[in-house]
Amino acid sequence: ELAVLVHKQTYDILVNGKVMQPDIPLQYVGGGVALTTWFSSVAFDNVYVIPVVPSFAESDSTAGAAMVTNTPEISSAISPAIPAMPAGGVARSNFGKVTADMTETKVLSAATTALNGFFSEKFPDKADQTRWITSSGEWRFEAGALVQQKPDGYDHNILTVGQFSKFTLRTTFRHRQGSGGGVIFNLPDPTTKSNSHLVRYFEDDGLVWGYFDAKGVFVGQGHSPVAAPGDQPHTLQVSVDGATYLVMLDNQLVAKNIPLLSKQGHIGLTASQSIVAFESVDVTALAPVQK
Known about the structure:
- This protein has 291 residues and is mainly β.
- It contains one helix and 18 strands.
- It has one helix spanning 104-116; strands spanning 2-6, 10-15, 18-25, 117-121, 132-134, 139-142, 145-148, 156-164, 167-178, 181-187, 197-202, 206-212, 218-225, 234-240, 244-249, 252-259, 265-271, 274-285.
- The strands form three sheets. Strands 4, 6, 7, 9, 14, 15, 16 and 18 form an eight-stranded antiparallel sheet that branches. The protein has a seven-stranded antiparallel sheet with strand order 5-8-17-10-11-12-13, with no helix packed on it.
């Protein structure tokens, strides 16, 4: 995946979401965009052009949410929301990925995911199970869900193979029994939950967040009363900026500016005293900021 972030006077080159060359001086400002090849035959799967996020110093009107939300209360420590696409804004593809009947919101969302995506799983019939490491519990891949089936016990975790830093983790899941589903993240070592962070439903109709210390003992950082999850789908989101993180549930801000113990690591799904079906998992980079 190749991306170019064009700023006012410079541009950055990214490969697979990582900046390979920053702050290259622009010789020309404005103009068209195109695809090119050099002595090769290349199939381009998709093309997106989206606006880069202005910095807070340049525009207070964009201050607000993490990349995938519009909540205006989130700390500026987390990247601001991508602004609405301007009239005449470009987000086009000649390959059927973005069609004329898609709204601007859908186009921007698709482009953002493509440009900033680290990891995405919707659990099709033949999900790639090699992307996951089972730590504990009884996990089963179904068509449309990854299910933790053991109803008793705590901290049944399944983790991604890769590690991440400065990201937004978003998962949609529903409880089939009990109330204990959530996420675990920034695990330095996939063989132990020590020095990692956890956010999950708690048995007393609340949402709890905190970390496991070096001995694997959970240390709470906060708790918020929420309605029992029942058997309906819920979406839990954690945005991590390297120093703090925030928590959102069903697109509502729950907590922000929570200190990080572990700065990066594996991310995963967790269930305690419950059977939980996770229907989707997305890990995206925090939105780039306009220089």
